[in-house]
């Protein structure tokens, strides 16, 4: 029995050590949408003291810098803007994502627009296999080039990634590296409130797990989070990926984003969501996207970036109850009596 306990103790320590290692990737990419400024998101978050806040959590953090890419020279595809840039950026991102996961680090990806999810999730699936994806967003991002009203990639990543929707796409030059290997049954939406008619049809047709704001109002964010997990990870065994669009928050909480929709998540709800997912010990990747420092005044920018950092902290171990004391400390220190 003693030897079994020793083995269990070693496993727990090793698990905790892995869960303390974090890699950061910046993706200053904005060609998946049309508003200038989203590419400045990674720099703005870093300058706000992100590294210090993460290190205060006791994390072993390594910043791998920003993705550098060359646009692929590809033929145009109807209603798909900047395909060569998206293909070039996301293929590099997928490669680096896989390399960092191989180093036993969880990953924080700083966007950039939401098209970057094509690269992060592709890399996660290729390295970990059967992952669970939680897409926190006001929008479903389920359009194809045939249904999109804009031709912008940041409204298409989920449709590109999921195997059930593969037949709805033409051949995409430059995207041969990316195969839709993620089942739509492994995807859960949280925070939806602006869904196109075609996207709603897809959600209903395939029975996608989708919680809109009215569901959060009815059940509360705590129960919604657990209901989502029970659907997409029923055996508590899959590596979890959260792709968090800042526009899932109400614009009063995060005004600096390109497609704001009123009536969204409160910051408190978003933090609770991330706290629950952190406690699963299976949250291995977080994307934070669509922060645009060019929108709004200085106060708006501080408010939005501050919200993003709170969300990141909650996903990587910050507790509102207070952090645990360092290992080996067992009592409250008494004052020195002179």
From TrEMBL:
<dbReference type="GO" id="GO:0004053">
    <property type="term" value="F:arginase activity"/>
</dbReference>
<feature type="binding site">
    <location>
        <position position="114"/>
    </location>
    <ligand>
        <name>Mn(2+)</name>
    </ligand>
</feature>
<dbReference type="InterPro" id="IPR023696">
    <property type="entry name" value="Ureohydrolase_dom_sf"/>
</dbReference>
<feature type="binding site">
    <location>
        <position position="141"/>
    </location>
    <ligand>
        <name>Mn(2+)</name>
    </ligand>
</feature>
<keyword id="KW-0835">Urea cycle</keyword>
<dbReference type="Pfam" id="PF00491">
    <property type="entry name" value="Arginase"/>
</dbReference>
<protein>
    <recommendedName>
        <fullName>Arginase</fullName>
        <ecNumber>3.5.3.1</ecNumber>
    </recommendedName>
</protein>
<feature type="binding site">
    <location>
        <position position="137"/>
    </location>
    <ligand>
        <name>Mn(2+)</name>
    </ligand>
</feature>
<keyword id="KW-0479">Metal-binding</keyword>
<feature type="binding site">
    <location>
        <position position="245"/>
    </location>
    <ligand>
        <name>Mn(2+)</name>
    </ligand>
</feature>
<feature type="binding site">
    <location>
        <position position="247"/>
    </location>
    <ligand>
        <name>Mn(2+)</name>
    </ligand>
</feature>
<dbReference type="InterPro" id="IPR006035">
    <property type="entry name" value="Ureohydrolase"/>
</dbReference>
<keyword id="KW-0378">Hydrolase</keyword>
<dbReference type="InterPro" id="IPR014033">
    <property type="entry name" value="Arginase"/>
</dbReference>
<dbReference type="GO" id="GO:0005634">
    <property type="term" value="C:nucleus"/>
</dbReference>
<keyword id="KW-0464">Manganese</keyword>
<comment type="pathway">
    <text>Nitrogen metabolism; urea cycle; L-ornithine and urea from L-arginine: step 1/1.</text>
</comment>
<comment type="similarity">
    <text>Belongs to the arginase family.</text>
</comment>
<dbReference type="GO" id="GO:0000050">
    <property type="term" value="P:urea cycle"/>
</dbReference>
<feature type="binding site">
    <location>
        <position position="139"/>
    </location>
    <ligand>
        <name>Mn(2+)</name>
    </ligand>
</feature>
<dbReference type="GO" id="GO:0005829">
    <property type="term" value="C:cytosol"/>
</dbReference>
<dbReference type="GO" id="GO:0030145">
    <property type="term" value="F:manganese ion binding"/>
</dbReference>
<dbReference type="GO" id="GO:0010121">
    <property type="term" value="P:L-arginine catabolic process to proline via ornithine"/>
</dbReference>
<keyword id="KW-0056">Arginine metabolism</keyword>
């Amino acid at each position: 029995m003693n030897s079994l306990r020793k083995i269990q103790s070693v496993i727990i320590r090793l698990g905790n050590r892995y869960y303390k290692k974090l890699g950061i990737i910046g993706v200053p990419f904005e060609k998946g949408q049309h508003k200038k400024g989203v590419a400045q998101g990674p720099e703005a978050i870093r300058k706000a003291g992100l590294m210090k806040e993460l290190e205060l959590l006791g994390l072993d953090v390594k910043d791998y810098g920003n993705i550098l890419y060359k646009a692929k020279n590809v033929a145009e595809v109807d209603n798909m803007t900047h395909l060569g840039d998206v293909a070039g950026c996301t293929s590099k991102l997928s490669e680096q994502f896989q390399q960092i996961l191989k180093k036993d680090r969880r990953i924080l990806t700083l966007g950039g627009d939401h098209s970057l999810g094509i690269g992060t999730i592709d890399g996660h699936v290729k390295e970990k296999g059967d992952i669970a994806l939680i897409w926190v967003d006001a929008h479903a991002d389920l359009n194809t080039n045939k249904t999109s009203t804009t031709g912008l990639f940041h409204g298409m990543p989920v449709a590109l990634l999921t195997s059930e929707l593969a037949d709805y796409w033409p051949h995409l030059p430059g995207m041969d590296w990316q195969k839709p290997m993620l089942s739509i049954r492994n995807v859960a939406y949280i925070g939806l409130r602006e869904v196109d008619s075609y996207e709603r049809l897809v959600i209903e047709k395939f029975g996608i797990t989708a919680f809109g704001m009215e569901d959060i109002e009815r059940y509360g964010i705590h129960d919604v989070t657990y209901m989502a997990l029970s659907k997409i990870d029923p055996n508590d065994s899959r590596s979890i990926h959260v792709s968090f669009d800042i526009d899932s928050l109400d614009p009063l909480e995060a005004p600096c984003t390109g497609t704001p929709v009123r009536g969204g998540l409160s910051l408190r709800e978003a933090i609770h969501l991330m706290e629950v997912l952190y406690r699963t010990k299976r949250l291995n990747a977080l994307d934070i996207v669509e922060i645009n420092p060019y929108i709004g005044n200085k106060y708006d920018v501080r408010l939005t970036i501050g919200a993003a950092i709170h969300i990141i902290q909650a996903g990587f171990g910050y507790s509102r109850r207070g952090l645990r004391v360092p290992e080996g400390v067992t009592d409250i220190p008494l004052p020195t009596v002179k």
